[in-house]
TrEMBL record:
<dbReference type="Pfam" id="PF12439">
    <property type="entry name" value="GDE_N"/>
</dbReference>
<dbReference type="InterPro" id="IPR024742">
    <property type="entry name" value="Glycogen_debranch_N"/>
</dbReference>
<dbReference type="InterPro" id="IPR010401">
    <property type="entry name" value="AGL/Gdb1"/>
</dbReference>
<dbReference type="InterPro" id="IPR012341">
    <property type="entry name" value="6hp_glycosidase-like_sf"/>
</dbReference>
<dbReference type="Pfam" id="PF06202">
    <property type="entry name" value="GDE_C"/>
</dbReference>
<dbReference type="GO" id="GO:0004135">
    <property type="term" value="F:amylo-alpha-1,6-glucosidase activity"/>
</dbReference>
<feature type="domain" description="Glycogen debranching enzyme C-terminal">
    <location>
        <begin position="279"/>
        <end position="641"/>
    </location>
</feature>
<dbReference type="InterPro" id="IPR008928">
    <property type="entry name" value="6-hairpin_glycosidase_sf"/>
</dbReference>
<feature type="domain" description="Glycogen debranching enzyme bacterial and archaeal type N-terminal">
    <location>
        <begin position="20"/>
        <end position="226"/>
    </location>
</feature>
<dbReference type="GO" id="GO:0004134">
    <property type="term" value="F:4-alpha-glucanotransferase activity"/>
</dbReference>
<protein>
    <submittedName>
        <fullName>Amylo-alpha-1,6-glucosidase</fullName>
    </submittedName>
</protein>
<dbReference type="GO" id="GO:0005980">
    <property type="term" value="P:glycogen catabolic process"/>
</dbReference>
<dbReference type="InterPro" id="IPR032790">
    <property type="entry name" value="GDE_C"/>
</dbReference>
Length: 644
């Protein structure tokens, strides 16, 4: 894997160290997450974040475990880091870091206090909400080590304040059970029990959200590190009837071995691909009912069917997980209703509110069968896939229906945002895109062709599917090319306002990246035109992927910043989306354009923001600072797939 290592110049400079985040997942949707500096900059940061009924319904437990070294001289040196509402940063342990590295996906810090060197490693127990934190004396000694446990128990999207009840602490051997929810265990436990008030999260402030919370100082562990190699370890795990976890050092060693096996099973071609294969592993989870699912992004997303299906090939077929993928496709197929795939949203409710999620599902099944030769799955799901086509022909929710005049797919309903550009501000869609969106129709044509192929493999008649496909392709080729040289973004879009006697509909030719799918999909409706693809690249391409709108178009916003309304307003109005590098790379290759240097910026990004991973979004304007989730499934999946 690529080397991710920082010395004192990065670790000791707070802005740099606090803007680089690490993630260690538990395989269930929970995680440990923080920054190189050790500073908690988000409400979502913690060493034990526990998934609930769905991956999105997480709770923060152990917030931090702050080390302090007691030297033989009597000096007490604190190695933790907190920022407070007063503006103070105290303690400032990052100033004593001589190195941070991410090895086999696990973070490791090394502090130097003169000749005393302390190292910290942490890992989670795969398949269980359990974190192990190991401290090792590397040089000097003997010294005493204290570990202060700052705790909470709250929804990951909120805060807990000292004006509420204190956290309940039940004593157990070697530690305590907090709120009946999770257990702390380690040497020399001394309970405390009071509030640390005004912990400040700078990233939440930047996002226009409430940035403060209070933390419960539950107590401290203490032990002696006598000689190099000695360790002091703490375990924290969701309190359940299962046996206690193995010793912390074994948890770390086992996690390291497992991560190496994950990489090896993906058969990576180079270090970047190895890094992406391990990054992909974070998003594939087992939910409470043991079903395979995909977390769309850490730290705040759960499972979203559109994201899952866009990510499918990269996460499952490029990493040696076809068996798990098969299981996932079957479980998602069971959610089909009226020809639409359930959008298993973060609300915990099953919703049917996308026009493209189902079409991405058709694509995922087709790619699975094509890549793996698993015709048994194709045969099993074929009736459901034919049902999708039939329902779209007949018409389903939100005005989603095939226009009999041209075979193209139209959609739209008041207040609905059905495509992947689904941001709303105060409930109003920013880019409603009602009518016939270009990528939706590319996916429709691709999907119908894929179902026809599966039908023929099963020995079934596919003539009707071929006729439908041919009609839609003919109309697509006639209608989507725009005079400007690229493709219309939406055909037959309702005009926002028109004079008496004017047209009620128009064809939207804003320069967006959605048209890339018309050239990139396996059964794309158009052969790539080098000039058109070149125009898209010239206007939209950045080091981290394509923008969502050309800077030359009205409504362009180059910064994805500010409060929720400002960020949502810019979400698809110029913001960069790294996942689009996949469609762009495919279209460029087919057009005969060079792609050898296309991934350099994203490869460098692997050590800039979410360490070893790819962010959700970035500013449309230079320097294209990353925004959104630092760890995003479709960003990782499409970079991995496109490079491979």
């Amino acid at each position: 894997m690529i080397e991710i290592r920082f010395g004192s110049q990065v670790c000791g400079e707070l802005t740099s160290a606090a803007s680089r985040e690490w993630l260690v997942p538990d395989g269930l949707g929970g995680y440990a997450m923080g920054t190189v500096a050790g500073l908690r900059t988000r409400r979502y940061h913690g060493l034990l974040v526990v998934p609930g009924e769905t991956p999105a319904s997480r709770k923060v437990g152990l917030a931090s475990l702050d080390p302090a070294v007691l030297l033989p001289s009597g000096a007490r040196v604190r190695l933790g880091a907190h920022e407070w509402a007063s503006g103070d940063v105290d303690p400032r342990g990052f100033e004593l870091l001589e190195r941070f590295d991410l090895t086999d996906g696990l973070p490791r810090w090394r502090w130097r206090i003169g000749d005393v060197v302390i190292e910290r490693e942490l890992a989670m127990l795969p398949g269980r909400s359990c974190v192990a934190v190991v401290h090792r004396l590397v040089g000097g000694g003997p010294v005493e080590l204290e570990l202060a446990a700052a705790c909470t128990w709250r929804d990951a999207h909120g805060e807990r304040r000292a004006d509420g009840p204190p956290l309940r602490m039940d004593p157990v051997d070697g530690g305590a059970v907090i709120e009946g929810a999770y257990r702390l265990s380690g040497p020399g436990w001394t309970p405390q029990g009071h509030w640390w008030r005004g912990a400040y999260h700078r990233e939440e402030a930047a996002r226009g959200l409430h940035p403060e919370e209070d933390l419960w100082y539950a107590g401290q562990f203490r032990d002696t590190l006598r000689q190099p190699g000695d360790t002091v370890s703490v375990l924290a795990w969701a309190h359940d009837p299962a046996p206690a976890p193995p010793p912390a050092t074994e948890v770390v060693a086992a996690a390291r071995r497992r991560n190496r096996e994950v990489v090896a099973s993906a058969k990576p071609a180079d270090d970047v691909e190895a890094t992406l294969a391990l990054a992909a592993d974070a998003f594939v989870v087992r939910t409470n009912d043991a079903a395979v699912d995909v977390v769309a992004g850490y730290p705040w997303f759960g499972a979203w069917s559109r994201d899952t299906m866009i990510s499918y090939e990269g996460l499952f077929l490029c990493t040696g997980r076809a068996d798990l993928g098969r299981e996932l496709l079957r479980s998602y197929a069971a959610t089909l209703s009226e020809g639409m795939l359930a959008n298993t949203a973060d609300t915990g409710r099953v919703e049917y509110n996308t026009v493209d999620g189902t079409l991405w599902f058709l694509h995922a099944v087709s790619r699975h069968v094509t890549v793996t030769g698993d015709t048994d799955l194709g045969d099993e799901l074929l009736p459901a896939l034919r049902g999708v086509v039939d329902a779209h022909l007949a018409g389903t929710r939100y005005g989603i229906a095939v226009d009999p005049a041209d075979g193209l797919l139209t959609s739209g309903a008041p207040g609905a945002a059905l495509t992947w550009m689904d941001a709303r501000v105060y409930g109003v869609p920013v880019t409603p895109r009602h009518g016939k969106p270009v990528e939706v129709n590319a996916l429709w044509i691709n999907g119908v062709a894929g179902v026809a192929e599966l039908a023929e493999l099963a020995g079934q008649d596919a003539d009707g599917l071929h006729r439908l496909h041919e009609q839609a392709v003919k109309a697509f080729r006639q209608r989507f090319p725009a005079p400007a040289g690229w493709l219309h973004d939406v055909l037959d879009a309702p005009a926002p306002a028109y004079p008496l006697g004017g047209a009620a509909f128009h064809d939207d030719d804003l320069l967006r990246p959605n048209q890339l799918l018309a050239w990139s999909l396996p059964n794309a409706p158009l052969a790539p035109d080098p000039r058109a693809v070149g125009l898209v690249g010239a206007a939209l391409l950045t080091p981290l992927g394509p923008r969502s709108l050309s800077p030359e178009c009205p409504g362009y916003l180059g910064g994805h910043r500010g409060g929720p309304a400002e960020r949502d307003g810019a979400y698809h109005q110029g913001t960069v989306w790294p996942w689009l590098i996949g469609p762009y790379a495919d279209a460029a290759r087919r057009a005969g354009l060079p792609v050898g240097e296309l991934f350099v910026g994203l490869e460098a990004h692997l050590s800039e923001y979410g360490l070893g991973s790819v962010s959700e979004t970035a500013d449309g304007s230079a320097p294209h600072t990353a925004t959104g989730c630092p760890f995003q499934a479709w960003s990782v999946a499409e970079l991995l797939r496109a490079r491979r």
